[in-house]
Amino acid sequence: MAKKKKINVVYSTNPDFAYSTNSGDEQETLPAAQQNIKVWIDKKQRGGKVVSLVQGFVGSNDDLKSLASDLKSLCGVGGSAKDGEILIQGDHRDKIVEFLQKKGYGAKKAGG
After folding, report:
1. What pLDDT score does 29 carry?
2. I want to staple 107 with a disulfide (CB 3.0 to 4.6 A). Which of 66, 88, 98, 100 is the partner?
3. Of 33, 77, 80, 78, which is closest to residue 61 (Cα–Cα)?
4. Among 28, 10, 30, which residue's Cα sits nearest to residue 19?
5. Domain SUI1: where (predicted)?
């Protein structure tokens, strides 16, 4: 049974009410040359563990997860992708920036 994506509407007395879902809100992925990606390390609220944080990607969740998968394979570690951010376990800033620049992304290492 397929789930419908309904948002907090139980009943409406409005005869002109047209229910809409959040489908179609997917952001279009910008070409790599137009992306402005920043990479830095972070260890706040992570139990002292260091992660490489990749922010600034503009695009769909599928493309974000695909890029995260490529970066996790490159570094040989785990990570996650959500809310427009990619988390890669460990300090791999140099490797990530080099990879993104070879792919044509506008990427730079930020402080951390």
Report:
1. 81
2. 100
3. 80
4. 10
5. 44-104
Number of domains in the chain: 1
Domain of 80: which CATH number? 3.30.780.10
Query: For residue 62, what are the domain limits?
Result: 32-109
Q: What are 65-85's pLDDT values in tens digits?
A: 999 999 999 999 999 998 889
**Token digits of residue 6:** 């309904």
Residue 88: Cβ-neighbour burial (10 angstroms; 0-12, 13-18, 19+): buried
At position 95, the amino acid (one-letter code) is: K
Two tokens, residue 79: 């990570």
